[in-house]
């Protein structure tokens, strides 16, 4: 059975986050709920800055990993930039204190509305993913008589050892521009007074624990920079994305210091600005999901632990077959365990968190359990499927805790369906 790690630990038989007892938090809240450690978040940022900024590499947080406003405010206060993939994320980033000059707008399907809003906000870099997007952005910049800075997102066709649903830098992925097309586009827009192509960007995937794909991808980018220079195009920015893997209990991780050293070596002859966009690696281990057991259902051939948390609260197992380590709030006694299928209450067979998972054979209805490492790609994927409320979030700081997102109840959701309005179609 996986044991919790700092800042989540057992003390006097009870699971704590920092100095807060999880059971005490659950008595103040309706389960399930997310709970974050401010100390771990700030420590992750410190280690990240020590690794990258000490080597002159800029950090932009990939906020698609977790866009809760309180989390964003803490990151903005630490001086990080931010990487956005939607207009909604830009609104949140602005509300959290990020400014346009610290923003990068990524995303394969940016709308006219999103591009216009980003131009007006003064976003510092547009990571453009197609010739078609480049043409549209140029037209919009001309209409507003402004100049925008562009990095062409390149698809380097690099294979990575990760889940097939989170690869983004191979042939056949929807992301990026073929390397063979980059020189053509830079020449086509050379001298344009409203658009300057000064960067190249890549993002090869997520949850990558091996440095070799990065070595290959960055090497390809450096070769492309040299090729473009020979054709009279100066590249002054290299945006190398993120995807640095964390340890979900599998024993492998790509730590900041290791990947920063690789990037530093591979870009040592590049004279411009190097950027990385960590997301999961900054926030994943800051959060847990607290849930209560509804039933321990004994059936043939297996026993089910049915939780009050469902796949609408924690989508990653259903979407990526991800496994989040699970621990009980009461410290397990030394003794026998049994294997359970851990499932939720949603009316879907895919609402299964993990099968054959060893936990105490004394589990009972009402017991509290905790999924670890839920700070990334969990809260942001919440839905109200089965007409369930969107669950609250708590931030812990030492012995203090505060609710940073209230639950979004069905009453609140149904309010958007009241006062039906007729649409005039003529």
From TrEMBL:
Which biological process terms from the Gene Ontology are attached to this UniProt entry? Answer: lysine biosynthetic process via diaminopimelate
On subunit structure and binding partners, the annotation says: Homodimer.
Q: PROSITE patterns given for it? A: ODR_DC_2_1, ODR_DC_2_2
Q: What is the originating organism of this protein?
A: Vibrio inusitatus NBRC 102082
Q: Does the keyword Phosphoprotein apply?
A: no
Record-listed pyridoxal 5'-phosphate binding positions: 243, 277-280, 377
Q: Which domain of life is it from?
A: Bacteria
Per UniProt, which keywords does this protein have? Answer: Amino-acid biosynthesis, Decarboxylase, Lyase, Lysine biosynthesis, Pyridoxal phosphate
InterPro entries of this UniProt entry? Ala_racemase/Decarboxylase_C, DAP_deCOOHase_LysA, De-COase2_CS, De-COase2_N, De-COase2_pyr-phos_BS, Orn/DAP/Arg_de-COase, PLP-binding_barrel
- What are the N6-(pyridoxal phosphate)lysine sites (modified residues) in this protein? 64
Per its record, how is this protein called by name?
Diaminopimelate decarboxylase
- Please give the catalytic activity noted in the UniProt record: meso-2,6-diaminopimelate + H(+) = L-lysine + CO2
Required co-factor?
pyridoxal 5'-phosphate
Q: Which family does it belong to?
A: Belongs to the Orn/Lys/Arg decarboxylase class-II family. LysA subfamily.
The pathway this protein participates in, as annotated, is: Amino-acid biosynthesis; L-lysine biosynthesis via DAP pathway; L-lysine from DL-2,6-diaminopimelate: step 1/1
């Amino acid at each position: 059975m996986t044991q919790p790690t700092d800042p989540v630990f057992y003390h006097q038989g009870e699971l704590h986050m920092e100095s807060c007892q999880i059971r005490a938090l659950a008595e103040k809240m309706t389960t399930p709920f997310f709970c974050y450690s401010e100390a771990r978040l700030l420590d992750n940022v410190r280690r990240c800055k020590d690794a990258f900024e000490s080597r002159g590499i800029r950090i932009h947080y990939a906020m698609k990993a977790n866009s809760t406003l309180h989390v964003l405010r803490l990151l903005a206060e630490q001086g990080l930039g931010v990487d956005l993939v939607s207009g909604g994320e830009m609104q949140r980033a602005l509300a959290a204190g990020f400014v346009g000059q610290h923003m990068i707008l990524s995303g394969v399907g940016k709308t006219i509305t999103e591009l216009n809003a980003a131009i007006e906000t003064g976003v510092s870099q547009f990571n453009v993913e197609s010739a078609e997007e480049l043409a549209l952005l140029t037209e919009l910049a001309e209409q507003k008589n402004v100049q925008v800075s562009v990095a062409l997102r390149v698809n380097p066709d690099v294979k990575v050892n990760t889940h097939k649903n989170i690869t983004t830098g191979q042939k056949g992925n929807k992301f990026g521009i073929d390397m063979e097309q980059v020189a053509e586009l830079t020449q086509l827009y050379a001298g344009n007074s409203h658009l300057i192509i000064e960067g190249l960007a890549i993002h090869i995937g997520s949850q990558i624990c091996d440095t070799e794909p990065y070595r290959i991808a960055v090497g390809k980018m450096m070769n492309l920079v040299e090729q473009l220079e020979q054709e009279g195009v100066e590249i002054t920015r290299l945006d190398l994305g993120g995807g640095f893997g964390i340890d979900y209990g599998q024993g492998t991780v790509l730590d900041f210091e290791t990947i920063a050293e690789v990037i530093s070596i591979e870009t040592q002859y590049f004279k411009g600005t190097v950027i990385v966009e960590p997301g999961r690696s900054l926030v994943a281990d800051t959060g847990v999901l607290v849930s209560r057991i509804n039933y321990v259902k004994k059936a043939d051939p297996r026993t089910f632990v049915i939780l009050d948390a469902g796949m609408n609260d924690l989508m990653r197992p259903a979407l990526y077959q991800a496994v989040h380590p699970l621990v009980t709030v009461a410290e397990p006694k030394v003794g026998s365990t049994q294997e359970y299928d851990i499932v939720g209450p949603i009316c879907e067979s895919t609402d299964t968190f993990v099968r054959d998972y060893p936990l105490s054979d004394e589990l009972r209805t009402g017991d509290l359990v905790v999924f670890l490492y839920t700070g990334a790609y969990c809260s942001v994927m919440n839905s109200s499927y089965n007409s369930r409320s969107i669950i609250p979030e708590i931030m812990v700081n030492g012995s203090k805790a505060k609710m940073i997102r209230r639950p979004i109840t069905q009453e609140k959701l149904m309010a958007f369906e009241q006062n039906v309005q007729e649409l005039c179609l003529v």
